[in-house]
Amino acid sequence: MRCRAPIVIAAAAMVVVGCDPGVERVSGLVTRIDTLGVGRVQGFTLRTTDGTTLDFVFDGGTDLSAGGWPPDHLQEHLALAEGVAVEYRTDRGRRIAIRLGDAAWIGS
Amino acid sequence: MRRLMSLVAIAAVVTACGGGAPPTAAPSPVPTSTDAPPSPEGPAMLPILASSEFAKGPNRFLFSITDRQNLLLAAPDVSVDLAFYDVDVASEEIAFETDSRFLWAVEGVSGLYVAKVEFPSGGRWGTRFTATFPDGSIRTVRADYDVLEESHSPAIGSEAPSVDTPTVPLGGDLAGVTTDPDPEPRFYTTSIAAALEAGEPFVAVFATPAFCQTATCGPTLETVKGVAADHPDLTFINVEPYVMSLQDGALRPVLDANGRLQPAPWTTGWDLLTEPFIAVVDADGLVRAKFEGAIAPDELEEVIGAL
Fold first, then answer.
1. What do you get for the CA distance between the two ends of chain A, in Å?
2. In terms of C-beta density within 10 A (0-12 exposed, 13-18 middle, 19 or more buried), how is residue B1 classed?
3. What whole-number distance in Å separates Cα of residue A84 and Cα of residue B12?
4. Closest Cβ–Cβ partner in B70, B110, B258 for A61
5. Intervals of chain A under pLDDT 50
6. Where are the alpha helices (DSSP H) in chain A?
7. Who has the most CB within 10 Å: A14, B51, B178, B288?
8. Chain A residue with minimal CA distance to B213?
9. Which chain B residues are closer than 8 Å to A31 by Cβ?
10. Are A4 and A16 in contact (CB under 8 A)?
11. Which residues of A touch B144 (CB under 8 A)?
12. Which ipTM value was assigned to this complex?
């Protein structure tokens, strides 16, 4: 089945339903990271351009292919207020991040 | 007991106001969830606490500010003054005040603020950020957060953990010890354990450029390399924070059974919460300063100059 790319409205929360069923995408700034230590990031909070805050958890690693990066790299994006793109699935009300990547600056 | 640390926003409760509006309490522990409305004169201001932890004693208080649309407000011409509140004692009474300075993480591209702060006690603390903009307007926002009795990473003044770290003699192949595409060979000639044993001061840099995709990321190691060039006789040590293996001529992360990165033994030995992390250790083996997230060259120069 051919997959149609959705139109993203920049000022909105930028939640995008991707081609992979059940996978959604959102961009924003990381405002909080929950961690037990290096290599043991448990989750994080993202603030979207409309002010919505979304909590994410990790269930294993993230997709490191094609520019994807690991949860620990979130700290650098937080420190520099660099945008983050998140692909995630929702399971029993939890948003499970499966891929993290650079996002174009949100709001500028 | 599992110690789940909330970096940053550090379970912060935020109240904000602009243009003279009174502060409004927000029920959410996340600073971005403030219920304060945007100021009529412009967007409200929100803090991002970039330090991974705060602990009793001296701290490097790292933060940024944005508006509610995530637009970065931090800039060299925006000054930010800080007022601190010991919430457990008197939540609305200023315990101490300090100013902050803007530092470029990547010169001319992105930066944030840093302040030297000494918390006299652990517990619940709050900070009111008051920003003055070039047009003279002032915005203010408060965030509350927890301060630990002891930090996870080695405290300033404590003994640096002695850990064996990978080394390569000058002239050797560095591909097996670093993901830096332009490595500085002298950063890999001495291990942390050897430097401590020799009683020589050193700068340890736990950082990997492996996951950086843009020019605005991963500046820490480059900053340290720039400072090191002016101190040819001082020992600098860079270590990859994660377990890596040499594959096809380059270091690749070794993931665990769940597909996650694994901290290297030396990272675990230092009990680091995040990377990049820089420590300056004196000839007595004591941690004189530590930095995380981003660093300005003169911050490092100041500490090195005092060794």
1. 36
2. exposed
3. 21
4. B258
5. 1-18, 105-108
6. 74-79
7. B178
8. A67
9. 8-9, 30-32, 48
10. no
11. none
12. 0.78
A40 touching B (Cβ < 8 Å) = yes
Domains of chain B, earliest start first: 13-147 (2.60.40), 174-305 (3.40.30.10)
| DSSP single-letter state for residue A68 | -
Neighboring chain A residues of B259 at a CB cutoff of 8 Å: 60-62
Q: Which among A32, A37, A61 has the least Cβ separation from residue B271?
A: A37
CA distance A54 to chain B (A): 10
Contact of A43 with A56, CB cutoff 8 Å: yes
Contact between chains at A70 and B72 (C-beta distance less than 8 A): no
Q: What is the pLDDT of residues B277-306, one digit of tens each?
A: 999 999 999 999 999 878 889 999 999 999
How many Å apart are CA A63 and CA B244, to the nearest integer?
17
Domain carrying residue A33: 25-102
Q: What is the total count of domains within chain A?
A: 1
Contact A81 B48 (CB under 8 A): yes
**Is the pLDDT at B43 greater than 50, yes or no?**
no
Task: Provide the β-strand partners of residue B221.
Answer: none
pLDDT band at B48, cuts 50/70/90? very high
Residue A46 lies in a domain: yes
Q: Which structure tokens are listed for B82?
A: 């800080």
